[in-house]
């Protein structure tokens, strides 16, 4: 069929496209839109020829039809003919671009229907696909294309945004020179879509930018700095792994066009390396592949002709995400740009947002991994930056810093690390002698050491142990600092274990630090538990058990902290340490008692502060009650009783003084109960003790009075028949007074004490007034309401029979009728 025949059938419909009646236009458009049927009927060639000669202009004019359905039909029909290649030639592409620009190339869009805007963009993409790059006529319309795409990039319809990106891909590939002139106008609105809520839109935008930016522009530096890089940096945190993967792909493409983007290398590499630090394994694998490909280019770049260390040891080190040593090109380019990369990364490490801090430290780890030992020149700056976030509130940031510091420890010069961190931890740097700075130093040191190999650490053990044992660090009371110090010390014990046997000074310092942590931290704290395990590890390293560890180091440590007859306050770290070791040392304390005792005596002097004496008396009572330590006190019992305990029983006013007397009496009672005082010892101590104990029988505290009675009881048992007449005469009355005590426990203790009192001297010393008065007092209490006290008094009366049996019978007979029950009197009369 000829073209003229097609005209006979369709010309009327073409004419109707200009009819004022919309229904007429609609019917004609519907008929003309059935391109497939018309092509089958008339033949594609004839139909295309008719379209080009008669239908094109009227159909394009319908793009502006006031009726939406008519516009839709005209756009759809034109799209179908474009697929048949009917648009090419004779300036039709340009005419179509102009028509499309008129509908969607302005803001606000003349075309109000979003679906039609999408169809127009799809039609534009078809035109771009079909147009020839060397078509001079069409080239003059590229400006309209650019403006159209720049406007539709801001279209609120997500599908229109994606169609816009598809068209840009074609445009940048075919007309890069023209794109270069309009890059800023196109890239600015497009970049705003990187924050769109639809992941697919963000993905398409990145794909468009990937091809667009390498076209270059005179405004590219400003555009990159003000628009592209700030927005691309946010894409690193995108919730979609596919978008993050495309970001890495785009950066790799830009790096391949390194000549055009040379000045932005340092800004692009962190974005590329973000894929290596990505949480998604797929993104990591893709990034590794891209870095491998780019490394070939980088290795051949003359600017990267820096020498690289070909170390066999380095080749054997495998650090994730790499499965072998990082490729040469990546190492070279990162080394060259390191000075430019670090300032921005280190600044972001302390950013106010958690995401930025975590991502920056993760990328920093990759950079440090690539530069290996080339980071030595920047170690101080790296440590200073990471010190700000090493104790971040967010665990994910701390973990990221820890991973970065492990790389620093793995590759950096250990002399530089220890020279920076050990003084910081010890508080020796100007203006940084605070627990905050010390803790930061400890945390960074722990993290760095975690990445070091054992042979790297061992040569520095002397300076490490010396710094850890620094008084300001060891005696700090900040809980977090104590926790980190315990952890680091335990780590050093485990690392340096092979050398500790041969270096006792190191072991001594570590023992000191761990013991101080045990002494100054709560039993349920992490620091305490870590220090306990560290002490066990230290003992194992020295081929000892924990008691053996105390036997080796307790004496020299006490001699060190107690040198020059120093007197401690209660809050003194040395007192706290001494107290802890004395309680935990077991048999080692017994062996070291000649060293411990002078410290005890010095601080139990009545001239010392009350709280100090109270603390040392409590410690002494614990030591005396410990079966492992107590036997060692026997040779020193007299000294302890006379110089340490008895002066603290002497009455002084006040509640604190009363507490001191009570604890001192507990010490006396424990010492005597343990049988530590031999007869010669008691003969030496009794003249000093008895007057003080006699006065203490009237103490205002019932517990103290009870302890005095119990102590006297043990004293009398230890000195049978040893008391002279004067002590008997002085004591009996005060002991009998305790039978009238307001506390029943004291009364019972007084009965038991008086019983032993009667046995502690010859009967002749009690004859006369003493025994007469005593019996009268005892018979009064034989009628007590408490049956237990009655039995206790009866036992004492039975003992008086040894002194004066006749008088006892006489008194029993006299009191038999006076008591409520004659039972005990009858027993005495038998």
UniProtKB/TrEMBL annotation:
Residues 16-300 form the Dynein axonemal assembly factor 5 TPR repeats domain. Residues 320-498 form the Dynein axonemal assembly factor 5 HEAT-repeat domain. It comes from the Eukaryota. SUPFAM superfamilies: ARM repeat. It holds the Pfam family HEAT_DAAF5. Gene3D superfamilies: Leucine-rich Repeat Variant (1.25.10.10). PANTHER family: DYNEIN ASSEMBLY FACTOR 5, AXONEMAL (PTHR16216), DYNEIN AXONEMAL ASSEMBLY FACTOR 5 (PTHR16216:SF2). This is TOG domain-containing protein.
């Amino acid at each position: 069929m000829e073209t003229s025949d097609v005209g006979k059938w369709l010309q009327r419909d073409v004419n109707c496209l200009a009819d004022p009646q919309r229904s007429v236009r609609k019917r004609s458009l519907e008929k003309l839109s059935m391109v497939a049927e018309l092509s089958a009927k008339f033949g594609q060639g004839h139909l295309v020829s008719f379209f080009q000669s008669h239908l094109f202009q009227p159909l394009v004019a319908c793009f502006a039809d006031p009726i939406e359905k008519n516009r839709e039909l005209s756009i759809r029909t034109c799209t179908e003919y474009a697929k048949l290649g009917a648009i090419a030639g004779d300036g039709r592409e340009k005419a179509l671009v102009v028509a499309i620009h008129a509908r969607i190339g302005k803001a606000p869009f003349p075309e109000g229907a979003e679906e039609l805007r999408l169809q127009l963009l799809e039609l534009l993409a078809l035109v771009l696909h079909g147009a020839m790059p060397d078509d001079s006529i069409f080239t003059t319309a590229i400006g309209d294309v650019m403006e159209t795409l720049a406007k539709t990039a801001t279209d609120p319809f997500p599908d229109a945004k994606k169609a816009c990106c598809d068209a840009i891909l074609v445009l940048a590939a075919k007309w890069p020179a023209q794109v270069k002139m309009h890059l800023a106008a196109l890239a600015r609105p497009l970049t705003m879509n990187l924050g769109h809520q639809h992941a697919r839109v963000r993905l398409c935008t990145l794909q468009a930018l990937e091809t667009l930016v390498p076209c270059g522009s005179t405004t590219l530096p400003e555009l990159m700095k003000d628009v592209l890089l700030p927005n691309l940096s946010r894409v690193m945190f995108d919730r979609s792994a596919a978008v993050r993967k495309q970001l890495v792909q785009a950066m790799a493409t830009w790096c391949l066009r390194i000549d055009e983007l040379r000045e932005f290398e340092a800004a692009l590499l962190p974005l590329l390396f973000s894929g290596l630090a990505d949480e998604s394994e797929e993104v990591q694998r893709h990034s590794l592949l891209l870095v491998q490909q780019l490394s070939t280019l980088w290795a051949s770049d003359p600017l990267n002709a820096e020498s690289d260390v070909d170390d066999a040891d380095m080749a054997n080190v495998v650090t994730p995400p790499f499965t072998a040593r990082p490729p040469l090109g990546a190492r070279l380019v990162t080394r060259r740009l390191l000075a430019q990369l670090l300032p921005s990364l280190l600044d972001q490490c302390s950013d106010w947002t958690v995401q930025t801090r975590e991502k920056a430290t993760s990328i920093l780890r990759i950079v440090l991994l690539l530069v290996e030992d080339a980071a030595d020149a920047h170690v101080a700056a790296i440590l200073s930056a990471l010190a700000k976030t090493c104790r971040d509130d967010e665990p994910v940031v701390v973990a990221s810093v820890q991973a970065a510091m492990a790389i620093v420890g793995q590759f950096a010069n250990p002399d530089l690390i220890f020279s920076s961190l050990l003084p910081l931890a010890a508080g020796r740097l100007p203006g940084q002698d605070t627990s905050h700075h010390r803790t930061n130093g400890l945390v960074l040191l722990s993290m760095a050491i975690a990445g070091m190999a054992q042979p790297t650490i061992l040569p520095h053990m002397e300076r490490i142990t010396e710094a850890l044992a620094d008084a300001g660090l060891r005696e700090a009371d900040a809980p977090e600092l104590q926790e980190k110090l315990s952890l680091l010390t335990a780590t050093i014990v485990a690392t340096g274990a092979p050398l500790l046997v041969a270096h006792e000074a190191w072991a001594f310092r570590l023992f000191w630090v761990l013991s101080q942590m045990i002494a100054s931290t709560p039993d349920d704290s992490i620091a305490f538990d870590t220090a306990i395990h560290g002490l066990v590890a230290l003992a194992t390293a020295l081929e000892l058990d924990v008691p053996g560890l105390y036997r080796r180091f307790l004496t020299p440590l006490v001699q060190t902290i107690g040198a020059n007859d120093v007197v401690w306050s209660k809050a003194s770290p040395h007192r706290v340490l001494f107290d802890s070791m004395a309680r935990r040392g077991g048999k080692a304390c017994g062996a070291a008692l000649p060293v411990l005792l002078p410290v005890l005596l010095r601080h139990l002097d009545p001239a010392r502060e009350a709280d100090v004496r109270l603390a040392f008396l409590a410690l002494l009572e614990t030591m005396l009650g410990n079966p492992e330590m107590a036997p060692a006190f026997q040779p020193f019992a007299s000294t302890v009783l006379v110089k340490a305990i008895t002066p603290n029983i002497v009455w002084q006013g006040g509640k604190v003084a009363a507490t001191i007397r009570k604890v001192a009496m507990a010490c006396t009672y424990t010492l005597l109960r343990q049988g530590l005082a031999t007869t010669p010892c008691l003969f030496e101590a009794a003249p000093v003790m008895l007057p003080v104990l006699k006065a203490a029988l009237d103490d205002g505290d019932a517990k103290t009075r009870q302890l005095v009675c119990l102590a006297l009881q043990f004293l009398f048992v230890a000195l049978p028949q040893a008391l002279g007449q004067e002590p008997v005469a002085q004591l009996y009355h005060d002991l009998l007074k305790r039978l009238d005590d307001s506390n029943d426990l004291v009364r019972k203790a007084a009965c038991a004490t008086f019983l032993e009192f009667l046995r502690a001297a010859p009967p002749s010393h009690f004859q006369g007034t003493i025994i007469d008065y005593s019996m009268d007092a005892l018979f009064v209490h034989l009628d007590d309401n408490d049956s237990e006290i009655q039995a206790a008094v009866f036992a004492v009366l039975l003992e008086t029979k040894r002194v004066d049996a006749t008088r006892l019978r006489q008194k029993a007979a006299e009191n038999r009728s006076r008591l409520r029950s004659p039972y005990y009197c009858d027993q005495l009369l038998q």
